[in-house]
Design brief:
The structure holds 2 protein chains of 2 kinds. Chain A is mostly helical. Chain A is built from 11 helices and 2 strands; from the N terminus they run ααααββααααααα. In chain A, α9 packs parallel to α11. In chain B, a hairpin with a 2-residue loop joins β9 and β10. The relative contact order of chain B is 0.18. The chains are: A mainly alpha, B alpha/beta.
Chain lengths: 287, 238
């Protein structure tokens, strides 16, 4: 029993990261129609930036949680302004190729500088230790990860579905040209949305730094699953990404308990089944 | 009787527009004064809708001159042009399916003061009040058309570009739209109307601009209309 809950908790943690990452991916794809392949690299850079800030500048975890996403958001703004913007008139394959190239460059640079063995980022003092729930031991930092990512996802959902700003985002996702014909500065929206998506990936990276090893390839290992999550949830669906992210984490955890050999492929089995039954994804609108 | 000259709100001069390789407008020239209701008439493919879209910067490329309230807009991006006080009601209506009726209604940002209040708009289109919480995708064609018109009245836009607003709608709804357009004219809005239904626009318009193959070929004022009806019908092929 202990083992089952242990695996489900690991699944829940992984699911929290899947949700945060697929949320950003879904927002970017929805509005910009760009498959942001660099999302994993941006997550990795978030973790590395937190580690570098702590190692070289003595910046603590909670400051990093604020400053790193802000800085990476600016990087995202620059990437959109200087590179992505030139590709909007073309097939979205070009955006995918560009961001794939950026991923290789970023991973190569970090590999060159730090090798592949990885660095450890300490759990912040305030979140060390854990509580015994009777049926299992719950490390405090893991609980924090789950709670924070649920809060961030819920807040993002609320802003998108229930506010004026979100109405612009939804309208822009349906028809950006028409939204601009109502006087909305859509090019600026594109820039800020990409910046926000990148900031969200970096935020997940900082959150992940104390849980996983900080390595140049940490993004690549997670991004494949995250793409599967986005496809299962329905490309561009916000709620779909959040629920599917957490759900897939739990399914992985359960599989690791029942039949560990299948735990790394179960996501893709689910994806294949969902695509057969509902090609637009669980929460996607059929076109 | 001499009417005081009304200020010019829009002037197109030598306007060319292109979609990719295809050259659609070949030097369109006309002007619209504040408070006027002007229709663009012509057969399919004569460039009426493209003229509206070119004014808004929604075509692939455009050259020439488009002055809006004295500002040259040929080099401006779409949102900046609209912020000079334009409102657009597209032919396909463009109701956002993932937004409720009221979210659609309040979506366009206010560009200047003096727009209609939500209350006034609901008085003009009572159906929309009942349907305010419905998603855009659940509205009937008539409701969508009213919403598409109502949406641009709140923003303070003074120049409304309306594209085929009666297309495919029941006569009772067409009548309601006619009353709405007349009410807008009486409120001092300037309107450019692209319309297939000549009987709908004839009693409303101050002036008809006739387009053929991307050029203006004639202009007919309200007073000249009775004498030119026959040649106009021949021109439109009805």
């Amino acid at each position: 029993m202990q083992a089952l809950f242990g695996q489900l908790l690991v699944g829940l943690i992984n699911g929290s990261f899947y949700a945060l990452l697929s949320l950003g991916l879904a927002i970017i794809f929805g509005l910009l129609n760009v498959v942001n392949f660099a999302h994993g690299a941006q997550y990795m850079m978030g973790a590395f930036a937190a580690w570098m800030a702590a190692t070289y500048l003595g910046v603590g975890y909670f400051w990093a949680l604020l400053l790193v996403p802000a800085a990476m958001g600016l990087v995202g703004v620059a990437v959109e302004r200087l590179l992505l913007r030139r590709l909007y008139g073309l097939d979205n394959l070009y955006g995918l190729l560009l961001t794939f190239g950026l991923t290789l460059i970023a991973e190569g640079l970090f590999h060159q500088a730090y090798g592949n063995s990885g660095s450890t980022y300490p759990v912040p003092a305030a979140l060390r230790g854990g509580v015994n729930l009777g049926f299992m031991y719950l490390p405090l930092y893991r609980a924090w990860v789950v709670v924070v990512s649920v809060v961030v996802c819920a807040a993002s959902w609320f802003v998108i579905e229930r506010t004026k700003l979100g109405a612009y985002l939804r309208a822009g996702t349906e028809n950006p040209r028409l939204l601009q014909a109502f006087g909305v500065n859509v090019p600026l929206m594109f820039t800020l949305t990409y910046g926000f998506g990148v900031a969200l990936a970096a935020f997940a990276g900082v959150m992940a730094a104390p849980v996983y090893q900080v390595t140049p390839l940490m993004g690549s290992s997670v991004i494949m699953v995250v793409f599967a999550v986005v496809v299962i949830g329905g490309m561009g669906s916000i709620a779909g990404s959040i629920f599917t992210g957490i759900g897939i984490g739990l399914v992985e955890g359960l599989t690791r308990y029942l039949y560990p050999e299948a735990s790394s492929v179960v996501v893709f089995v689910v994806m294949a089944l969902v695509l057969l039954v509902r090609p637009a994804g669980l929460f996607g609108r059929q076109r | 009787m001499i009417e005081p000259a009304r200020p010019e709100l829009l002037r197109l001069a030598g306007l060319h527009a292109f979609y990719g390789e295809s050259h659609v407008l070949h030097g369109v020239d006309f002007a619209v004064s504040a408070g006027e209701l002007v229709t663009l008439l012509g057969r399919n493919g004569s460039g009426r809708t493209t003229t509206l879209k070119a004014i808004l910067g929604l075509v692939g490329r455009r050259t020439g001159s488009i002055m809006v309230s004295g500002h040259e807009t040929i080099g401006l991006p779409t949102h900046r042009i609209v912020q000079l006080g334009l409102g657009f009601c597209p032919e396909e209506r463009g109701i956002f399916a993932s937004l409720t009726a009221e979210e659609n209604l309040t979506l366009p940002p206010v560009v200047r003061s003096g727009g209609m209040s939500l209350e006034e708009i609901y008085e003009m289109f009572p159906n929309l009040r009942e349907r305010r919480r419905s998603p855009g995708s659940r509205l009937s064609g008539g409701e969508q058309q009213m919403l598409a018109m109502a949406r641009i009245l709140r923003t303070g836009a003074r120049l409304l570009l309306l594209d085929e607003i009666t297309e495919g709608l029941a006569p009772v709804i067409v009548q309601a739209l006619g009353r709405a357009v007349r009410a807008l004219r009486d409120r001092g809005f300037t309107v450019i109307l692209v319309e297939q239904n000549f009987r709908f626009v004839a009693p409303l318009a101050d002036r008809h601009v006739l387009l053929e193959r991307g050029r203006v070929v004639d202009t007919i004022t309200r007073d000249e209309l009775p004498g030119k009806l026959e040649s106009l019908h021949r021109f439109l092929g009805v």
